[in-house]
Prior knowledge:
Elements lengths: L2 E11 L15 E5 L5 H12 L12 H8 L4 E8 L2 E10 L4 E9 L9 H14 L4 E7 L6 H7 L3 E11 L2 H4 L1
Parallel strand pairs: 5-6
Antiparallel strand pairs: 1-6, 1-7, 2-3, 3-4, 4-5
Amino acid sequence: MPTVSVRRxxxxxxxxxxxxxxxxxxxxxxxxxxxxxxxxFFRWLYATVGGPWHWFERREWSDETIRAxxxxxxxxxxxxxxxxxxxxxxELNQRPDGSVEVVHIGLVPDRIGKGLGGFLVSEAVRDAxxxxxNRVWLHTCTLDGEAALPNYLxxxxxxxKTEEYEVELPAHAAG
Length: 175
């Protein structure tokens, strides 16, 4: 298994006024909540959106684990629909300290670079504040797409911590 060095950056917003949304919404784009998500659809979202960025932790989750995770009252799953198809998603998690973490967020590979990323991040932040957050936060790393960190910064997030670590990528995540 290959080992790679990774830099993780933690970012936050402490006030809803920090959000800098794009000037307009892409025509035909909307975010929808997902209730009673079929495990196969969750797996498709996670693998398709996260595959290029080496998301592998949840790939082996059982149907029961997925259902239990998504049934928690603190977890919110939203899908970005564009022209009738799911093209991205985000997952929010309310934390005991009153913050809301954007746990996962991203687009399917063939929709990256089409002006949807800023819209998706903005919708996630609005949604997090609507959940009653006292802080909205997320982290990204050097395994993520090169546009991720700049997009978060453009949306008004501020970096507050970085860390360096080594990770072993499973064989199925390395290529």
